[in-house]
Amino acid sequence: MTAIHLSAPDIDPDEVAYFEKLAHRWWDDQGPFWPLHKLNRFRVDYIRAQLCRVFARDARAERPLEGLEILDIGCGGGILSESMARLGARVTGTEITEKNIRVSQIHAGWSGLDVTYRLVTAHDLAREGKTFDAVLNMEVVEHVDHLPDFLADCARLVRPGGVMVVATINRTPLAWVTAIFGAERILGWLPKGTHHYRKLVKPDELTDGLGAEMVPVDRTGVRVNPFNRVFKFSSSMAVNYMMVFRRANGSVTADQASSTPAEASV
To answer: Is residue 164 part of a domain?
Structure first.
């Protein structure tokens, strides 16, 4: 793999340096990324349900995403990318740190999975004219600079009729108390400095940044029980939340546009 020069305006050098130091721990489910391993099992079910609904697939099938092209932006060590590949999707995982790409490639080889990993930004990928059936933006938007530019690039990567799934943390006082002060400083679930309050993203900022062609079709809050570390859906989006957007010319119906998290997750 040839390294490329990463110069897009949405790249924060401090974020790159921070995660490079932790790259070797991605697949240690007892290490600093254990919350991602726990969260991954929860969000994979949500993504599978949403994509099967949009693309009229049987969510109970062993490989319900067979043939779909999926982009996993900020794939980290490949935790979500591998999960999508196991469901039958053709997956491209992208990262901005070479160490993470190396970890992803090695682990995919160990797992016997055919996943394409690229050291490339969303900005450069969009300039290449690449498009995908589904773009996964999970726990990424709260780590970028120049959010509107980043979201605009991501929207360009969704092909007609395709979807984008975003998971992030709301910028609210409650989110600061629980996701930053509580999770990082009190419980130690995440390394200190993982999140910065000013970078947390409100739902309407996602909608505005993705543009009118990307229509919200589902949203749900996510909560975690601090005692048993179990993730569940929540009617409140005040802390963690997920949203699904579909490109408008993909014939979104009124029922889809008004669906509730409960309907989507059944």
So the answer is: yes
